[in-house]
Design goal:
binds 1-O-pyrophosphono-5-O-phosphono-alpha-D-ribofuranose, binds magnesium ion, binds adenosine-5'-triphosphate, five-stranded mixed β-sheet, Alpha-Beta Plaits, D-Maltodextrin-Binding Protein, domain 2, 285 residues, 15 strands, alpha/beta, 3 domains, globular, single chain
């Protein structure tokens, strides 16, 4: 039997719930709601899950003590660990921005000589160094928006999701986004990809495709099938099957979920009927 694959999963914070849900959808065993196990075995899949702080996951993966892990792209870059992103997972999205009181600065080069507070010091130091900006980086653990009010910093660099926290602290975004982040699967940068990792990647990809697409079926007159196929090209090519009713065909294609209603309207307008949309439960593409 091959060696057990070790996977690190966030134990708390905004990535923990969606990460466990995605792994469950991919057919792996996960902790039941509210459980606080630090390790969980999934003998059917020959996998062991380690529930760790999201900030630490890239460090464990980089050291080789676990094979792969789920963390944020921002946390991976901040860690400076020899781990690399192998798959973006489509959840936990956020944008990392500079913010300050109005009138403090307009662009990054204005930060020279100022104090910038953040809980992503590694990421920030690299960013400033790459642009040759000499600012003092103040390392904080969280609630960095308050640092300006308390006089500890002039500027902050932090995750912005809705912008509510910034507004409440009287701050506004300065300059371009520093980084767009989302949850990612990470593996050791120099490591070979064992078959178990390839299998995990295929399963996670399958979950993402099943979430992003729906299956669309409809009937249409044969002479309009080219037009219809242009509206529903599918991933490679739509399936067209003969119907018992003369002059008509049945078409089946995957359609992006977000476009399903518009595509149905367009199909209806060219004479398609019996248009049905169904969820894709799982897939391997
Ligand atoms: N609104 C958000 N606030 C913070 N992090 C977010 C948010 N939305 C997505 N993320 C992502 O979640 C990861 C941070 O997760 P982490 O669990 O460390 O922080 P958290 O969600 O703020 O939890 P906590 O504050 O309880 O430590 C980062 O990759 C970050 O980009
Ligand atoms: O743009 P918003 O929707 O307001 O979200 C962004 C805020 O949410 C997170 O803080 P969190 O609540 O996790 O507290 P923390 O700073 O202590 O981590 C993040 O650090 C920002 O402060
Ligand atoms: Mg937080």
């Amino acid at each position: 039997m091959s060696t057990t694959l070790r996977i690190a999963v966030p134990n708390k914070g905004s990535l923990a719930g969606p990460a466990a849900e995605m792994l469950r959808e991919a057919g792996y065993r996960q902790r039941t709601n509210g459980a606080r196990d630090l390790v969980l075995r999934d003998p059917d899949n020959n996998v062991e899950f380690f529930y760790l702080r999201p900030r630490d996951i890239a460090v464990y993966v980089g050291s080789g003590t676990v094979d792969v892990g789920v963390t944020g792209r921002d946390l991976l870059l901040d860690s400076g660990s020899p781990a690399e992103e192998v798959l973006a997972l489509g959840f936990g999205g956020s944008t990392f921005h500079f913010a300050a009181r109005p009138g403090t600065a307009e662009k990054v080069s204005d930060f020279a000589g100022l104090r910038v507070a953040t809980s992503y010091a590694g990421l920030l130091e690299t960013y400033l160094a790459e642009r040759g900006v000499d600012a003092a980086v103040i390392r904080l653990d969280g609630a960095v928006e308050t640092a300006v009010q308390l006089g500890v910093a002039d500027v902050i660099a932090d995750v912005v999701e809705t912008g509510t926290t910034l507004r409440q602290a009287g701050l506004e975004i300065v300059g371009e986004p520093i980084l767009k982040s989302e949850a990612v699967l990470v593996a050791r940068a120099d490591g070979a990809r064992p078959p178990a990792v390839e299998l995990l990647l295929r399963r996670l990809n399958g979950v993402m495709v099943a979430r992003e697409y729906v299956m669309m079926d409809y009937d249409i007159r044969a002479e309009r099938v080219e037009e219809a196929s242009a509206l529903t090209p599918g991933l490679e090519s739509p399936t067209v099957s003969p119907l018992h009713r003369e002059g008509w065909v049945a078409v089946r294609a995957m359609v992006p979920r977000a476009e399903a209603q518009r595509v149905m309207d367009d199909l209806w307008a060219i004479g398609a009927r019996a248009i049905l949309v169904t969820d894709i439960l799982a897939c391997r593409i």
